[in-house]
Structures are given as structure tokens and as C-alpha cells.
């Protein structure tokens, strides 16, 4: 997790570029914490699109009196990603998880695939009409 405040408006989550693993960052909860004022606090996620251009997307608009917490149901992101407090003074706490998926050996993946002959042998049960 991290905390965004008037003094610390952004936090960047990065991984080692030379790492041969896939990284998934999931954002679970964004919430106001002790000391927050009753003002709009807008949290943005800043990343890169398919053309490698920076793009910022607001993911939360929190206000102490009406919505102090937002569950993002493990909103998955691809690192590197920056969380930025675009409006308000916080403090806003962000919580989530980071999963590292080690890439499998290519020969192992090939063993797991069915050959064309094996795929043809697989029979599917016929689809029956629903009973009324």
C-alpha cells in the first residue's frame, strides 16, 4: 500500500525491467484516513497506452461526508504505474497486492498442449434443448 497526501502527491510502483517474470498489481481499496478534510480527493492512475504515450485515468473521487472509501475489486494494472492525487489534500490510503508470475519453461508448455490428433479425439456431449 501507499499513502498520498498534500506533501506526497504521487507514488510510482516499478519492477526490475530485466526481471523475466510477469508482474500483476491489483488495486483493492482506496480510502481517506485520519486527518482528511471534507473535500473532493481525486486519485488517478497514470500508465502507458499501447502507443507508449502517458495516459491518466481517474479511479476514485472520495469525500469524507459522502464516500470516504471505494472498493476497486482488485483492479489489475501492469507496472510501471503511478498513483497520483490529482485533487484534494488527502491523506488517501491505497491498498492492494502484487503477484509475480514466473514464466514457465517453453518445453513444459509444449508438453501440456494436446497434439492435433489428440484434439480431434476429444468428443463433446451433444447439446440438449432445455426442458420447459
UniProtKB/TrEMBL annotation:
The keyword Acetylation applies. Residues 1-99 form the Nucleoplasmin core domain. It comes from the Eukaryota. GO terms for molecular function: chromatin binding; histone binding; RNA binding. One of its GO terms (cellular component) is nucleolus. GO terms for biological process: chromatin remodeling. Residues 107-132 are annotated as: Disordered. Keywords: Acetylation, Chaperone, Methylation, Nucleus, Phosphoprotein. It is found in: Nucleus, Nucleolus. The keyword Transmembrane does not apply. Its main location: nucleus. Residues 107-123 have a biased composition (Acidic residues). Plays a role in the regulation of diverse cellular processes such as ribosome biogenesis, chromatin remodeling or protein chaperoning. Modulates the histone chaperone function and the RNA-binding activity of nucleolar phosphoprotein B23/NPM. Efficiently mediates chromatin remodeling when included in a pentamer containing NPM3 and NPM. PANTHER family: NUCLEOPLASMIN, NUCLEOPLASMIN-3. Interacts with NPM (via N-terminus). Forms a pentamer with NPM at a ratio 4:1 (NPM3/NPM). Two pentamers form a decamer. Belongs to the nucleoplasmin family. This is Nucleoplasmin-3. It comes from Mesembrinibis cayennensis. The lineage of its organism: Eukaryota, Metazoa, Chordata, Craniata, Vertebrata.
Amino acid at each position: 500500500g501507499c499513502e498520498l497526501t498534500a506533501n506526497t502527491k504521487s507514488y510510482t510502483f516499478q519492477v526490475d525491467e530485466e526481471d523475466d517474470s510477469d508482474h500483476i498489481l491489483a488495486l483493492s481499496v482506496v480510502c481517506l484516513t485520519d486527518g482528511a478534510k471534507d473535500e473532493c480527493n481525486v486519485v488517478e492512475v497514470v500508465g502507458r497506452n499501447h502507443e507508449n504515450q502517458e495516459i491518466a485515468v481517474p479511479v476514485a473521487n472520495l469525500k469524507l461526508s459522502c464516500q470516504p472509501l471505494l472498493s476497486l475489486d482488485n483492479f489489475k494494472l501492469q507496472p510501471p504505474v503511478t498513483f497520483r492525487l490529482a485533487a484534494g489534500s488527502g491523506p488517501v490510503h491505497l491498498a492492494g497486492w502484487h503477484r509475480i508470475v514466473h514464466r514457465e519453461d517453453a518445453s513444459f508448455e509444449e508438453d501440456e498442449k494436446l497434439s492435433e490428433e489428440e484434439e480431434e479425439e476429444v468428443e463433446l456431449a451433444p447439446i440438449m434443448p432445455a426442458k420447459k
